Each structure stands twice: as C-alpha cells, then as structure tokens.
Amino acid sequence: MRQTRNSLLLWLGFALSGVCVVVGTAHGRAGKENQDEVNLNLSKVAVIDMGRLYDQSSAPKDYERNEQEIAQDADKRMKLVTGIEYLEPVEIQEFLTLVGKFTPTPQESERVSALQTLSNTRGTEMRNLSTKDAASLTLADKKRLQTLIDASRTFRNTYLPNIEAQIRNSALARAQTFRVQQMNDLRTAVGRYAKDKGIQHVFDSSTLIYSPNDITDKVIEKVKKK
Predict the structure, then answer these.
(1) Residue 193 to residues 39, 57, 90, 96, 190: CA-CA distances in angstroms?
(2) Which residues of 163-177 are buried (b: 16+ CB within 10 A; e: fewer)?
(3) What's the mean pLDDT when you consider all of the chain?
(4) What would you report as the CA-atom Rg of the chain, rounded to the nearest whole angstrom?
(5) Percent of residues, the chain, with pLDDT higher than 70
C-alpha cells in the first residue's frame, strides 16, 4: 500500500513538473512575442534633427542667394521710388502699384517710365523757376513753384518713409516665405524616406528626447545626392 502511494506521489511529481515546464515554455514564448511586437513598433518610429538636416543641405546657400536677390530687387525699387517726388498723390499711388508687380506687362512698364518722365519734367520746371529772378516771376509762376516745392517736401517727409518701410517689410516677408518653403521641401524629403523604410512616425529631435532610430544622417545623404 505504501509502495503504491509512493508511486502515485512520484507520478504526480513528474506530472506537475511537466505542467510547470509547459507553462514556463508558454510564458517564455508569449514574452518573446511581446518583445518582438515592441521592437516592431519601435522600428516604425524615428527621430531626426531638422536643424542639422537644414544646415547640411543646400538650403543655407540657396537662402543666401535668394536673400541677395531680394535685397537687390528692393534696392532697385527704392531707386525708382526716390525719383517720383514731384508726382501728385494719385500718381504716386499708381506708380507704387505698378512698381510692386514682379512681372509687369509691357504696357505697365511703359506707364512706369511715363510717370518717371513726368516727375523729372516737373523737377526741371521747379529748378528753372527757382533760379529765376524773384522780380521776374509772375503770380502764376510763384504759385506753381510753391506747389512743386510742397509736393517735394510732402513726398520726402510723408510718403518716402512709409514707402521704404513697406519695401523692407515686403523683402522680409519674401525671405520668410522662401525659408518656409525650404523647410516644407525638407519635410517632404523626410516623408519620402520614412515611407520607403516603412516608418510611420518621425519626430523632430527638439520634441522627442530619445529614439534608437535616428535617421538624420541617412536623410542628409539622400538630400545631398539630389
């Protein structure tokens, strides 16, 4: 009887050991599957240093060249504007509207030239009147001279400062727009790389402290090959 009981206990021990082995194996398999899933999810997330990507791409040189072009264009517009001091307010507004166009039509360019000529003609008239002997000036001459002097003074004191500010602000806005477009182009390049590699989410390193999947160097290499 005792031998039978011992045999039964021995059998139960082996059986329980088998269960433990099965359970342990199953738990190990489940842990491995969970780890594989975590690794798979991590491979779908990446980080990139957009600042370094910008600096090592052609963007800085392109921005500098565009900035110089904008500055040259602003200087050209300023030189055109400073020569219209004898135009009347309505004519000044028309001139500014035409000069503000980046691709004027031939007719618009001709009108700009005509307004410049008109201002120059009035400037010559003012200088001729101002060099005459005061006693020889008629009442109409004196009135005309004062009108031209007032027009020049009003333009330089009132219109010109505002026009200069507008031209500067326009240049800054154009440069900023170009910079935004550059960043959009770089983001597009990052998106293409991520899509090719099966990456679902890419974070800027300024917003994500750490990720084992840093794609900065790889995207820089892709961008430089263009």
Answers:
(1) 20, 15, 55, 46, 5
(2) beeebeeebeebbee
(3) 84
(4) 39
(5) 81
Residue written as token pair 């820089």: 220
Sign of CA dihedral 145, 150, 151, 156: positive
CB 43 within 8 A of CB 213: yes
Give CA–CA dist 87/123, Å, rounded: 10
Rounded mean pLDDT, 173-191 = 96
Q: Cα–Cα distance between 118 and 124 in angstroms, integer? A: 10
Is residue 40 packed enough to be buried (19+ CB in 10 Å), middle (13-18) or exposed (0-12)?
exposed
CA-to-CA separations, 185 to 23, 174, 180, 215, in angstroms, rounded: 54, 17, 9, 17
Report the distance separating Cα 160 and Cα 199, nearest Å: 54
What is the C-alpha to C-alpha distance for residues 113 and 119, in angstroms, rounded to an integer? Answer: 10
Selection from 45, 43, 54, 65 nearest residue 189 by Cα: 54
3-state secondary structure at position 48? strand
Identify the pLDDT of residue 2.
46
